[in-house]
Amino acid sequence: MIPVSIKRNVILQWLQGIPRDKIARMNEISTGTISNIVDDERDVDLEIDYTRTLAVYLMNEETQVRTFSWAVRLYNISLELGISIETTEALIHKIHEHCFKKQKSVPDFANLLIDHITLTEQHGISLDQFERIYMGLLAKKNLYEEQAREAKMLRDTEIRLYGTTHEELVRLSTSNPFTVKSLN
Fold this sequence. Notes:
mainly alpha, Arc Repressor Mutant, subunit A
């Protein structure tokens, strides 16, 4: 029977990311015994491998507590909102991909999204309604631009037909009360 003090030392050293061979030398036991102790602990603590991976990462990257706490906060927010961490990660990657393709920075895109959401809240509409309203306004704008192009083409045709200039038509419209006032 392996003493509890050795088991505790082995687990603590293993969680610190110390290699099996070195743990064996430090505790004067075989690497097989190290494996058995870790396997027994896995039966009790199903997340021990995650804990070790995290500990090794934090040590190797010299990660600050602030960075790690941000990850914990993001994880907790995802859980509170009912979003899996996989979905959260996929969303972040999708935003990055979109910004890369559109040559926009991720912070600028995030601020734009926040602005859009704020705008919809101020006007009492949902984000999906915002898109529909925007598309309607864009269609009207395009229609007005097309009508303006057609009116300009008609004006230019009449100018050529009557052998005059735009300035002359404007002068005539201001001096003659019977002419149309919308030549500009």
